[in-house]
Structures are given as structure tokens and as C-alpha cells.
Amino acid sequence: MVRTSLQDITSSGVTLGYNGTTNYTDLFDEDDLVPVVLRTLLWVGGIVVITMTLSLALGQLLNARFPGRRVVRWAVVVPWAASVLMTALIWKWMLDNYSGLVNRVLLDLHLIDEPVNWLAHPGQAMLWMMWVAVFVSLPFTSFVILAGLQTIPEDVYEAARVDGASAIRTYFGITLPLLRPAILIASIINVINVFNSFPIIWAMTAGGPGNDTDTTTTFMYKLAFYDQHVGESGAMAVVNFALILVMVLFYLRAARWREEVR
């Protein structure tokens, strides 16, 4: 990847030689680069925060004892086991402004007066794609949280109950602190997966209209296959890798992961 970013490569894959930092210069001269990077950071931050918040609640539910718990656990796995591409396409069809289920339901409930072309407006499209990304990320994250919950000794909770701790104090004083390793792992994996997410955006909007819903991953694809700038796309891939690395390192520092190791 780094080697490609430093070479002059034709659209047919023929390497013409060393290109120095020209590909990086061309990349940073792209007018769409800054908006794409900022949109990517918003995309990653929003999805990971929402996914982790919902997964904490869903993990607690899956850990509770109730009739049919095994069936519910299997049902939660389905969005993760299904093809991400097909899930994105199904949501795209559901959001169709003429025959989509979403518009039909909202019209029947009199929440909208006329069908809305949700994916034609960049802001609305991004929100829907973020929802789909959360939808497919929830199962894995919830089961990581569930695994973390099942490692917490029951006698710790018994001691808290004997001391008269309320449910809220027990959760914030015992459960969350002991879940930190699971939260750390789930967050890092989600950051990497969401940062590199391609099928959802490509299937639903292809980064359009224009580049208004592109993230760094779809933007580098367009550079390579639409603009035929393979080397520049390689430079974007290196920048994308660096952004992921920086975000993970910042998160590890904020989470004080070394304390968990000790």
C-alpha cells in the first residue's frame, strides 16, 4: 500500500516508476478531501458511540434470565450473520420514495404528507446509513458486552446487596468498571470496522450525490476506479490507515488501557 502510494501507476496496473510524493500532493490538493475526512470522523464517532450505548443495554437484557432468552440471543445474531451488502440493499429498497416500506408506514401514520426520497438528501442519507451501520454492529458488540458481564463474579453483586447498594450504584460502581476490558475491545474493533466500512455506503448511495456522502474508503475507491488515479488512491489508503491508528491510540490513552493490563 505504501509502495503503491509512491509510484506512478496507470489505470491498467502498469507501474511507470517512482513518483515521489506527487500522489500525496495531488491528494491534499483535492477539494473534497477535508469534507470527506471530517464526514468520516463524524461517521465513525456517531456510529461507535450509539452502538456502544445500545449494546450496554442490550447486553444487560441478554444476560438477564427470562423465558425464551436463547431464542432472543439467536435473533440478535441475525443482522451480524447476514450479508452486510444485502442488508444495505434491503434498507435501500425500504427507503425507496415510491414503493419503500418506510414511506408507506409514515404515510399511513400521517407523519409525512408525501413520499420522501430519503437517500437523495446528503444529511438524511448519512443518518439512515449510520442507522444501518449501527444495526449491523449491534450483535457483535452486544455479545462482547454479554461475555464481559458473564465474567463478573456473582459474589461481588451479593456483597453490594448486603451493603445496601442500589441498582444504579451497583451498575456504575461495579458493572461498568469491571466491563472496561470488554468495552475497550469492542470499541477498538468497531472503530476499525466502521472506519473501513464500504458496502453500506456504496450500496445505498455510492457516496453521492457527488461526494456528499463519501467517507475515506469510498473516496479512495473513486480515486482508483473512477478517476483512474491508482497511486493517489494508494496515498488515500495510507492516510486512512494513519487516521485509524491515531484514533485508536487516542482512545487507548483516554481509556488508560495500561491500567487494565496491570
Structural Rg: 22 Å
Q: What strand order characterises the main sheet?
A: 1-2
Number of strands: 2
| CATH homologous superfamily descriptor of one domain | MetI-like
CATH hierarchy, class of one domain: Mainly Alpha
- What is the terminal separation in angstroms? 35 Å
Which fold name corresponds to the CATH topology of one domain? MetI-like fold
Q: How is this fold's topology laid out?
A:
Layout: H1 2-5, E1 7-9, E2 15-18, H2 22-28, H3 33-63, H4 69-81, H5 84-94, H6 101-108, H7 122-149, H8 154-162, H9 167-178, H10 180-195, H11 199-204, H12 216-225, H13 230-255, H14 257-261
Helix pairs in contact: 2-13, 3-7, 3-10, 4-7, 7-10, 10-13, 12-13
Subcellular location: Cell membrane
Protein name: Sugar ABC transporter permease
Domain ABC transmembrane type-1: 37-251
What do these coordinates show?
One of its GO terms (cellular component) is plasma membrane. Belongs to the binding-protein-dependent transport system permease family. With 262 residues, the chain is mainly alpha-helical. The chain has a domain at 48-179 and 193-201: MetI-like (MetI-like fold, Orthogonal Bundle), CATH 1.10.3720. It has 14 helices and two strands. The protein has helices at residues 2-5, 22-28, 33-63, 69-81, 84-94, 101-108, 122-149, 154-162, 167-178, 180-195, 199-204, 216-225, 230-255, 257-261, and strands at 7-9, 15-18. It has a two-stranded antiparallel ribbon with strand order 1-2. A hairpin with a 5-residue loop joins strand 1 (7-9) and strand 2 (15-18). Helix 4 crosses helix 7 (122-149), helix 7 (122-149) packs antiparallel against helix 10 and helix 12 (216-225) runs antiparallel to helix 13 (230-255).
